[in-house]
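Regression report. Comparing outputs from two consecutive submissions.

Submission 1:
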Amino acid sequence: MAGRPQLVVFDVNETLSDLTPMADRFAAVGAPPHLAATWFAGLLRDGFALTLTGANPRFAEVGEGVLRQVLAAVPLERTLEDAVAAVLAGFGELAVHPDVVPGLRALTAARHRLVTLTNGATAVPQGLLTQAGVRDAFERLLSVTDAGAWKPARAAYEYAAAECGVPVGEALLVAVHPWDVHGAKAAGMQAAWINRSGGPYPGHFLSPDLVADGVDDLATQLAVV
Protein backbone atom coordinates (compact mmCIF):
# COMPACT_ATOMS: atom_id res chain seq x y z
CA MET A 1 0.00 0.00 0.00
CA ALA A 2 1.04 3.59 -0.59
CA GLY A 3 2.27 4.61 2.86
CA ARG A 4 0.47 5.25 6.12
CA PRO A 5 -3.17 6.27 5.60
CA GLN A 6 -4.32 9.59 7.02
CA LEU A 7 -7.67 8.12 8.02
CA VAL A 8 -8.91 4.60 8.88
CA VAL A 9 -12.60 4.11 8.09
CA PHE A 10 -14.29 1.13 9.75
CA ASP A 11 -17.38 -0.65 8.52
CA VAL A 12 -19.54 -1.66 11.51
CA ASN A 13 -21.89 -4.61 10.93
CA GLU A 14 -19.92 -7.88 11.07
CA THR A 15 -16.61 -6.03 10.80
CA LEU A 16 -16.75 -4.72 14.38
CA SER A 17 -19.95 -6.37 15.63
CA ASP A 18 -20.39 -10.12 15.99
CA LEU A 19 -23.70 -11.11 14.38
CA THR A 20 -23.45 -14.76 15.49
CA PRO A 21 -25.93 -14.32 18.40
CA MET A 22 -28.64 -13.30 15.93
CA ALA A 23 -29.07 -17.00 15.10
CA ASP A 24 -30.13 -17.56 18.71
CA ARG A 25 -32.70 -14.78 18.38
CA PHE A 26 -34.28 -16.57 15.43
CA ALA A 27 -34.28 -19.87 17.29
CA ALA A 28 -35.93 -18.24 20.32
CA VAL A 29 -38.98 -17.27 18.26
CA GLY A 30 -39.25 -20.71 16.65
CA ALA A 31 -37.45 -19.98 13.38
CA PRO A 32 -34.48 -21.96 12.00
CA PRO A 33 -31.22 -20.33 13.16
CA HIS A 34 -29.79 -20.28 9.63
CA LEU A 35 -32.44 -17.73 8.65
CA ALA A 36 -30.38 -15.08 10.45
CA ALA A 37 -27.85 -15.15 7.61
CA THR A 38 -30.64 -15.25 5.02
CA TRP A 39 -32.26 -12.22 6.61
CA PHE A 40 -29.09 -10.13 6.76
CA ALA A 41 -28.14 -10.99 3.16
CA GLY A 42 -31.64 -10.03 2.04
CA LEU A 43 -31.43 -6.77 3.95
CA LEU A 44 -28.25 -5.83 2.10
CA ARG A 45 -29.65 -6.97 -1.24
CA ASP A 46 -32.75 -4.83 -0.94
CA GLY A 47 -30.78 -1.85 0.35
CA PHE A 48 -28.42 -2.07 -2.60
CA ALA A 49 -31.33 -2.34 -5.03
CA LEU A 50 -33.00 0.74 -3.58
CA THR A 51 -29.72 2.65 -3.69
CA LEU A 52 -29.24 1.70 -7.34
CA THR A 53 -32.63 3.17 -8.19
CA GLY A 54 -31.82 6.49 -6.53
CA ALA A 55 -33.27 5.95 -3.06
CA ASN A 56 -31.45 6.22 0.26
CA PRO A 57 -33.50 3.90 2.50
CA ARG A 58 -33.29 3.63 6.26
CA PHE A 59 -31.40 0.50 7.29
CA ALA A 60 -33.84 -0.28 10.08
CA GLU A 61 -36.86 0.05 7.80
CA VAL A 62 -35.40 -2.30 5.20
CA GLY A 63 -34.31 -4.71 7.90
CA GLU A 64 -37.79 -4.89 9.40
CA GLY A 65 -39.44 -5.34 6.01
CA VAL A 66 -37.14 -8.19 5.00
CA LEU A 67 -37.52 -9.79 8.43
CA ARG A 68 -41.30 -9.84 8.11
CA GLN A 69 -40.93 -11.50 4.72
CA VAL A 70 -38.50 -14.12 6.03
CA LEU A 71 -40.57 -15.00 9.10
CA ALA A 72 -43.98 -14.93 7.40
CA ALA A 73 -43.53 -18.45 5.99
CA VAL A 74 -42.29 -19.94 9.29
CA PRO A 75 -44.54 -21.53 11.95
CA LEU A 76 -43.50 -19.30 14.86
CA GLU A 77 -43.95 -19.84 18.58
CA ARG A 78 -45.37 -16.32 18.98
CA THR A 79 -47.12 -13.72 16.84
CA LEU A 80 -45.28 -12.29 13.87
CA GLU A 81 -45.24 -8.85 15.50
CA ASP A 82 -43.68 -10.20 18.68
CA ALA A 83 -41.16 -12.27 16.74
CA VAL A 84 -40.05 -9.31 14.63
CA ALA A 85 -39.65 -7.14 17.74
CA ALA A 86 -37.67 -9.83 19.56
CA VAL A 87 -35.26 -10.41 16.68
CA LEU A 88 -34.68 -6.72 15.98
CA ALA A 89 -34.03 -6.05 19.67
CA GLY A 90 -31.13 -8.47 19.47
CA PHE A 91 -29.46 -6.40 16.79
CA GLY A 92 -29.00 -3.57 19.25
CA GLU A 93 -27.49 -5.85 21.88
CA LEU A 94 -24.61 -7.29 19.87
CA ALA A 95 -21.02 -7.21 21.12
CA VAL A 96 -17.76 -6.65 19.28
CA HIS A 97 -15.47 -9.46 18.11
CA PRO A 98 -12.69 -10.37 20.60
CA ASP A 99 -9.97 -8.87 18.40
CA VAL A 100 -11.64 -5.47 18.13
CA VAL A 101 -10.81 -3.85 21.47
CA PRO A 102 -7.08 -4.68 21.52
CA GLY A 103 -6.84 -3.79 17.84
CA LEU A 104 -8.47 -0.41 18.30
CA ARG A 105 -6.32 0.36 21.32
CA ALA A 106 -3.20 -0.43 19.30
CA LEU A 107 -4.37 1.77 16.44
CA THR A 108 -5.11 4.72 18.72
CA ALA A 109 -1.78 4.25 20.50
CA ALA A 110 -0.16 4.58 17.08
CA ARG A 111 -2.15 7.81 16.56
CA HIS A 112 -4.31 6.67 13.70
CA ARG A 113 -7.44 8.72 13.06
CA LEU A 114 -10.42 6.36 13.25
CA VAL A 115 -14.02 6.82 12.11
CA THR A 116 -16.88 4.47 11.35
CA LEU A 117 -18.97 4.44 8.18
CA THR A 118 -22.13 2.35 8.38
CA ASN A 119 -25.09 1.69 6.11
CA GLY A 120 -27.21 1.95 9.25
CA ALA A 121 -27.87 4.68 11.79
CA THR A 122 -25.03 6.03 13.95
CA ALA A 123 -26.94 4.90 17.06
CA VAL A 124 -25.80 1.33 16.37
CA PRO A 125 -22.03 1.94 16.53
CA GLN A 126 -22.60 4.45 19.34
CA GLY A 127 -24.15 1.75 21.52
CA LEU A 128 -21.83 -1.02 20.34
CA LEU A 129 -18.62 0.90 20.95
CA THR A 130 -19.77 2.46 24.20
CA GLN A 131 -20.65 -0.97 25.58
CA ALA A 132 -17.22 -2.25 24.54
CA GLY A 133 -15.51 0.73 26.19
CA VAL A 134 -13.88 1.96 22.98
CA ARG A 135 -16.14 4.79 21.83
CA ASP A 136 -13.28 7.19 22.58
CA ALA A 137 -11.14 5.51 19.90
CA PHE A 138 -13.25 7.10 17.15
CA GLU A 139 -13.30 10.78 16.37
CA ARG A 140 -16.54 10.50 14.37
CA LEU A 141 -19.35 8.04 13.66
CA LEU A 142 -20.53 8.48 10.08
CA SER A 143 -23.61 7.11 8.33
CA VAL A 144 -24.60 6.82 4.68
CA THR A 145 -27.81 8.56 5.69
CA ASP A 146 -25.87 11.79 5.22
CA ALA A 147 -23.97 10.54 2.17
CA GLY A 148 -27.10 10.07 0.07
CA ALA A 149 -26.27 6.48 -0.92
CA TRP A 150 -25.44 3.16 0.70
CA LYS A 151 -22.04 1.59 0.36
CA PRO A 152 -20.71 0.33 -2.04
CA ALA A 153 -21.77 3.45 -3.99
CA ARG A 154 -18.84 5.79 -4.65
CA ALA A 155 -20.64 8.69 -2.98
CA ALA A 156 -20.54 6.98 0.41
CA TYR A 157 -16.74 6.68 0.49
CA GLU A 158 -16.21 10.15 -0.95
CA TYR A 159 -18.51 11.54 1.73
CA ALA A 160 -16.48 9.97 4.54
CA ALA A 161 -13.19 11.31 3.21
CA ALA A 162 -14.60 14.78 2.61
CA GLU A 163 -16.20 14.97 6.06
CA CYS A 164 -12.83 14.21 7.63
CA GLY A 165 -10.89 16.56 5.36
CA VAL A 166 -8.62 14.00 3.69
CA PRO A 167 -8.18 13.01 0.03
CA VAL A 168 -10.11 9.84 -0.71
CA GLY A 169 -6.89 8.09 -1.72
CA GLU A 170 -5.39 8.78 1.72
CA ALA A 171 -8.17 6.93 3.54
CA LEU A 172 -8.22 3.20 4.30
CA LEU A 173 -11.53 1.34 4.54
CA VAL A 174 -11.58 -1.67 6.86
CA ALA A 175 -14.33 -4.20 6.18
CA VAL A 176 -15.17 -7.88 6.43
CA HIS A 177 -17.34 -7.71 3.29
CA PRO A 178 -15.54 -8.09 -0.06
CA TRP A 179 -18.25 -5.99 -1.75
CA ASP A 180 -17.38 -3.12 0.62
CA VAL A 181 -13.68 -3.49 -0.10
CA HIS A 182 -14.42 -3.46 -3.83
CA GLY A 183 -16.57 -0.35 -3.51
CA ALA A 184 -13.87 1.52 -1.61
CA LYS A 185 -11.20 0.55 -4.12
CA ALA A 186 -13.43 1.59 -7.04
CA ALA A 187 -13.89 4.97 -5.35
CA GLY A 188 -10.11 5.42 -5.06
CA MET A 189 -9.71 4.49 -1.39
CA GLN A 190 -7.23 2.06 0.05
CA ALA A 191 -8.86 -0.97 1.65
CA ALA A 192 -8.15 -3.72 4.16
CA TRP A 193 -10.13 -6.96 4.21
CA ILE A 194 -10.76 -8.59 7.58
CA ASN A 195 -10.90 -12.29 6.73
CA ARG A 196 -12.92 -13.77 9.58
CA SER A 197 -14.05 -16.84 7.61
CA GLY A 198 -10.62 -18.10 6.58
CA GLY A 199 -11.84 -18.45 2.99
CA PRO A 200 -10.38 -16.92 -0.17
CA TYR A 201 -11.10 -13.39 -1.32
CA PRO A 202 -13.39 -13.36 -4.42
CA GLY A 203 -11.35 -12.90 -7.58
CA HIS A 204 -14.13 -10.95 -9.32
CA PHE A 205 -13.69 -8.00 -6.93
CA LEU A 206 -10.87 -5.43 -6.81
CA SER A 207 -8.21 -6.73 -4.44
CA PRO A 208 -7.58 -5.22 -0.98
CA ASP A 209 -4.31 -3.54 -0.09
CA LEU A 210 -4.12 -5.50 3.15
CA VAL A 211 -5.62 -8.77 4.38
CA ALA A 212 -5.85 -9.29 8.15
CA ASP A 213 -7.26 -11.98 10.46
CA GLY A 214 -8.72 -9.36 12.78
CA VAL A 215 -8.44 -5.75 13.86
CA ASP A 216 -5.51 -6.60 16.11
CA ASP A 217 -3.66 -8.15 13.15
CA LEU A 218 -4.48 -5.08 11.06
CA ALA A 219 -2.91 -2.84 13.72
CA THR A 220 0.23 -4.96 13.66
CA GLN A 221 0.47 -4.68 9.88
CA LEU A 222 -0.14 -0.94 9.83
CA ALA A 223 2.59 -0.48 12.42
CA VAL A 224 5.19 -1.43 9.83
CA VAL A 225 3.71 0.53 6.91
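Submission 2:
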Amino acid sequence: MISRPFRALLALVLVHAGLHAGIPESPRKAISRYEIQQDLMGSVSVVVEQRTGTTLPGAMQGNEADRKSVGLAAIYSLLLPGMGELYAGGFESGRYFLIAEGALWFTYLAFDVYGNTLRDDARLYAVSHAGITPAGKDEQFYVNIGNFINTAEYNDKKLRDREPDRLYLPNSGFDWQWASDDARAFYRDQRISSENVFNNRKFVVAAVIVNHVLSAINAGRSAIRHNAQLDQPLGGLRVRADVIGGPFHAHGIELTFSKPL
Protein backbone atom coordinates (compact mmCIF):
# COMPACT_ATOMS: atom_id res chain seq x y z
CA MET A 1 0.00 0.00 0.00
CA ILE A 2 1.32 3.46 -0.92
CA SER A 3 1.79 5.71 2.11
CA ARG A 4 -0.10 8.96 2.43
CA PRO A 5 3.01 11.21 2.10
CA PHE A 6 4.06 9.38 -1.07
CA ARG A 7 0.56 9.72 -2.56
CA ALA A 8 0.55 13.44 -1.82
CA LEU A 9 4.04 13.90 -3.29
CA LEU A 10 3.02 11.94 -6.39
CA ALA A 11 -0.08 14.12 -6.79
CA LEU A 12 2.09 17.24 -6.56
CA VAL A 13 4.37 15.93 -9.31
CA LEU A 14 1.38 15.10 -11.53
CA VAL A 15 -0.10 18.55 -11.04
CA HIS A 16 3.17 20.18 -12.04
CA ALA A 17 3.44 17.86 -15.03
CA GLY A 18 -0.11 18.70 -16.12
CA LEU A 19 0.53 22.42 -15.82
CA HIS A 20 3.71 22.24 -17.88
CA ALA A 21 1.94 20.02 -20.51
CA GLY A 22 -0.97 22.48 -20.84
CA ILE A 23 -3.59 20.01 -19.64
CA PRO A 24 -6.52 21.85 -18.03
CA GLU A 25 -7.46 20.85 -14.52
CA SER A 26 -10.98 19.61 -13.80
CA PRO A 27 -12.80 22.02 -11.43
CA ARG A 28 -14.27 19.09 -9.47
CA LYS A 29 -11.32 16.69 -9.31
CA ALA A 30 -8.33 19.03 -9.36
CA ILE A 31 -6.16 19.13 -6.22
CA SER A 32 -4.82 22.55 -5.33
CA ARG A 33 -1.19 23.06 -4.41
CA TYR A 34 -2.23 24.35 -1.02
CA GLU A 35 -4.20 21.17 -0.29
CA ILE A 36 -1.21 19.07 -1.31
CA GLN A 37 1.05 21.15 0.90
CA GLN A 38 -1.33 20.76 3.82
CA ASP A 39 -1.49 17.01 3.16
CA LEU A 40 2.27 16.73 3.06
CA MET A 41 2.83 18.88 6.12
CA GLY A 42 0.19 16.98 8.09
CA SER A 43 1.94 13.71 7.31
CA VAL A 44 5.49 14.89 7.79
CA SER A 45 4.69 16.57 11.10
CA VAL A 46 3.98 13.16 12.66
CA VAL A 47 7.41 11.92 11.65
CA VAL A 48 9.00 15.07 12.97
CA GLU A 49 7.30 14.73 16.33
CA GLN A 50 8.37 11.12 16.69
CA ARG A 51 11.98 11.88 15.79
CA THR A 52 12.33 14.97 17.92
CA GLY A 53 10.91 13.27 20.96
CA THR A 54 7.88 15.58 21.30
CA THR A 55 5.74 14.18 24.09
CA LEU A 56 2.07 14.21 24.84
CA PRO A 57 0.76 15.86 28.04
CA GLY A 58 0.57 12.51 29.84
CA ALA A 59 4.16 11.69 28.92
CA MET A 60 5.26 15.12 30.05
CA GLN A 61 3.76 14.48 33.46
CA GLY A 62 5.66 11.20 33.67
CA ASN A 63 8.86 13.02 32.69
CA GLU A 64 8.34 15.57 35.45
CA ALA A 65 7.75 12.78 37.96
CA ASP A 66 11.19 11.36 37.13
CA ARG A 67 13.00 14.63 37.86
CA LYS A 68 15.22 14.77 40.95
CA SER A 69 15.43 17.62 43.43
CA VAL A 70 18.95 19.07 43.59
CA GLY A 71 18.40 20.37 47.12
CA LEU A 72 17.01 17.07 48.37
CA ALA A 73 19.93 15.16 46.87
CA ALA A 74 22.38 17.48 48.63
CA ILE A 75 20.58 17.10 51.98
CA TYR A 76 20.64 13.32 51.70
CA SER A 77 24.40 13.34 51.18
CA LEU A 78 24.93 15.84 54.00
CA LEU A 79 23.26 13.32 56.29
CA LEU A 80 25.03 10.28 54.84
CA PRO A 81 27.53 10.57 51.96
CA GLY A 82 26.48 8.55 48.91
CA MET A 83 22.77 8.58 49.65
CA GLY A 84 22.14 11.73 47.62
CA GLU A 85 23.90 10.19 44.64
CA LEU A 86 21.82 7.03 45.08
CA TYR A 87 18.65 9.14 45.01
CA ALA A 88 19.84 11.05 41.92
CA GLY A 89 20.90 7.91 40.05
CA GLY A 90 24.64 8.59 40.34
CA PHE A 91 25.72 6.05 42.94
CA GLU A 92 28.68 5.01 40.74
CA SER A 93 30.52 8.05 42.12
CA GLY A 94 28.60 8.29 45.40
CA ARG A 95 29.76 4.90 46.60
CA TYR A 96 33.29 6.22 47.00
CA PHE A 97 32.06 8.87 49.44
CA LEU A 98 30.19 6.19 51.37
CA ILE A 99 33.31 4.00 51.51
CA ALA A 100 35.38 7.00 52.63
CA GLU A 101 32.82 7.71 55.36
CA GLY A 102 33.15 4.21 56.76
CA ALA A 103 36.94 4.33 56.59
CA LEU A 104 37.08 7.69 58.38
CA TRP A 105 34.85 6.58 61.24
CA PHE A 106 36.85 3.36 61.56
CA THR A 107 40.01 5.51 61.83
CA TYR A 108 38.36 7.69 64.47
CA LEU A 109 37.43 4.61 66.50
CA ALA A 110 40.96 3.24 66.18
CA PHE A 111 42.45 6.53 67.44
CA ASP A 112 39.99 6.60 70.32
CA VAL A 113 40.76 3.04 71.42
CA TYR A 114 44.52 3.50 71.06
CA GLY A 115 44.50 6.85 72.89
CA ASN A 116 42.52 5.44 75.80
CA THR A 117 44.87 2.47 76.00
CA LEU A 118 47.95 4.73 76.19
CA ARG A 119 46.30 6.97 78.78
CA ASP A 120 45.17 4.08 80.99
CA ASP A 121 48.60 2.47 80.81
CA ALA A 122 50.25 5.76 81.80
CA ARG A 123 47.98 6.18 84.80
CA LEU A 124 48.53 2.61 85.95
CA TYR A 125 52.26 3.26 85.66
CA ALA A 126 51.86 6.36 87.88
CA VAL A 127 50.00 4.30 90.48
CA SER A 128 52.83 1.79 90.71
CA HIS A 129 55.80 4.20 90.36
CA ALA A 130 54.52 7.41 92.00
CA GLY A 131 52.04 6.06 94.56
CA ILE A 132 49.08 8.16 93.33
CA THR A 133 45.44 7.47 94.13
CA PRO A 134 43.56 7.80 90.80
CA ALA A 135 40.04 8.20 92.23
CA GLY A 136 38.59 11.71 91.93
CA LYS A 137 41.51 13.21 90.02
CA ASP A 138 41.03 15.63 87.14
CA GLU A 139 43.07 15.86 83.96
CA GLN A 140 45.22 18.70 85.29
CA PHE A 141 46.44 16.49 88.16
CA TYR A 142 47.82 13.95 85.69
CA VAL A 143 49.60 16.77 83.85
CA ASN A 144 51.15 18.06 87.09
CA ILE A 145 52.55 14.70 88.24
CA GLY A 146 54.38 14.41 84.95
CA ASN A 147 56.08 17.78 85.45
CA PHE A 148 57.21 17.48 89.09
CA ILE A 149 59.03 14.74 90.99
CA ASN A 150 56.73 15.01 94.05
CA THR A 151 54.01 17.10 95.68
CA ALA A 152 56.48 19.26 97.63
CA GLU A 153 58.28 20.36 94.46
CA TYR A 154 54.97 21.25 92.88
CA ASN A 155 53.78 23.28 95.90
CA ASP A 156 57.09 25.20 96.07
CA LYS A 157 56.66 26.21 92.44
CA LYS A 158 53.10 27.47 93.03
CA LEU A 159 54.23 29.49 96.08
CA ARG A 160 56.96 31.15 94.01
CA ASP A 161 54.38 31.94 91.34
CA ARG A 162 52.06 33.36 94.04
CA GLU A 163 49.31 30.88 93.25
CA PRO A 164 48.40 29.57 96.72
CA ASP A 165 44.95 28.54 95.52
CA ARG A 166 46.58 25.83 93.38
CA LEU A 167 48.43 24.11 96.25
CA TYR A 168 47.83 20.44 97.09
CA LEU A 169 47.24 20.12 100.85
CA PRO A 170 49.04 17.34 102.74
CA ASN A 171 47.08 14.09 103.25
CA SER A 172 44.39 15.25 100.81
CA GLY A 173 44.86 12.30 98.48
CA PHE A 174 46.84 14.38 95.96
CA ASP A 175 50.29 13.26 97.10
CA TRP A 176 52.84 11.60 94.81
CA GLN A 177 56.51 10.71 94.85
CA TRP A 178 58.24 9.30 91.77
CA ALA A 179 60.72 6.50 92.28
CA SER A 180 63.12 8.26 89.89
CA ASP A 181 63.20 11.12 87.43
CA ASP A 182 63.45 8.60 84.60
CA ALA A 183 60.16 7.03 85.73
CA ARG A 184 58.54 10.47 85.76
CA ALA A 185 59.86 11.22 82.26
CA PHE A 186 58.60 7.88 80.95
CA TYR A 187 55.12 8.58 82.32
CA ARG A 188 55.14 12.08 80.87
CA ASP A 189 56.08 10.84 77.40
CA GLN A 190 53.36 8.19 77.48
CA ARG A 191 50.74 10.70 78.60
CA ILE A 192 51.72 13.13 75.83
CA SER A 193 51.53 10.31 73.29
CA SER A 194 47.97 9.57 74.36
CA GLU A 195 47.06 13.25 74.00
CA ASN A 196 48.54 13.37 70.50
CA VAL A 197 46.44 10.37 69.49
CA PHE A 198 43.31 12.05 70.88
CA ASN A 199 44.16 15.22 68.96
CA ASN A 200 44.37 13.20 65.75
CA ARG A 201 40.65 12.50 66.13
CA LYS A 202 40.00 16.18 65.42
CA PHE A 203 41.57 15.85 61.98
CA VAL A 204 39.42 12.79 61.30
CA VAL A 205 36.27 14.72 62.27
CA ALA A 206 37.33 17.55 59.94
CA ALA A 207 37.82 15.02 57.13
CA VAL A 208 34.35 13.60 57.82
CA ILE A 209 32.80 17.07 57.50
CA VAL A 210 34.64 17.69 54.22
CA ASN A 211 33.51 14.30 52.92
CA HIS A 212 29.87 15.18 53.67
CA VAL A 213 30.15 18.55 51.92
CA LEU A 214 31.88 17.12 48.84
CA SER A 215 29.33 14.33 48.59
CA ALA A 216 26.50 16.88 48.83
CA ILE A 217 28.02 18.87 45.95
CA ASN A 218 28.48 15.71 43.90
CA ALA A 219 24.89 14.62 44.62
CA GLY A 220 23.57 17.98 43.44
CA ARG A 221 25.55 17.67 40.21
CA SER A 222 24.23 14.12 39.74
CA ALA A 223 20.66 15.42 40.06
CA ILE A 224 21.39 18.17 37.52
CA ARG A 225 22.84 15.64 35.05
CA HIS A 226 19.84 13.35 35.58
CA ASN A 227 17.37 16.17 34.85
CA ALA A 228 19.38 17.31 31.82
CA GLN A 229 19.13 13.83 30.31
CA LEU A 230 15.35 13.95 30.72
CA ASP A 231 15.24 17.27 28.86
CA GLN A 232 17.16 15.97 25.83
CA PRO A 233 15.13 14.84 22.74
CA LEU A 234 15.02 11.14 22.00
CA GLY A 235 18.11 10.20 20.06
CA GLY A 236 19.39 13.77 20.40
CA LEU A 237 18.23 14.55 16.80
CA ARG A 238 15.97 17.41 15.68
CA VAL A 239 14.14 17.40 12.34
CA ARG A 240 12.42 20.32 10.63
CA ALA A 241 10.24 20.07 7.49
CA ASP A 242 9.39 22.96 5.16
CA VAL A 243 7.55 23.21 1.84
CA ILE A 244 9.75 24.75 -0.85
CA GLY A 245 8.01 27.63 -2.62
CA GLY A 246 5.53 28.53 0.11
CA PRO A 247 1.89 27.48 0.49
CA PHE A 248 0.79 28.69 -2.99
CA HIS A 249 3.84 27.74 -5.06
CA ALA A 250 4.90 24.44 -3.50
CA HIS A 251 7.38 22.47 -5.56
CA GLY A 252 9.08 20.22 -3.01
CA ILE A 253 9.80 19.38 0.61
CA GLU A 254 12.90 20.42 2.58
CA LEU A 255 13.96 18.37 5.61
CA THR A 256 16.50 19.87 8.04
CA PHE A 257 18.29 17.61 10.52
CA SER A 258 20.17 19.10 13.47
CA LYS A 259 21.73 17.74 16.63
CA PRO A 260 21.82 19.92 19.77
CA LEU A 261 25.22 20.60 21.28
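Expected: both submissions complete independently.
Actual: both completed, but the second showed a warning that disappeared on reload.
Relevant detail on submission 2: Residues 4-53+234-258 form one domain.
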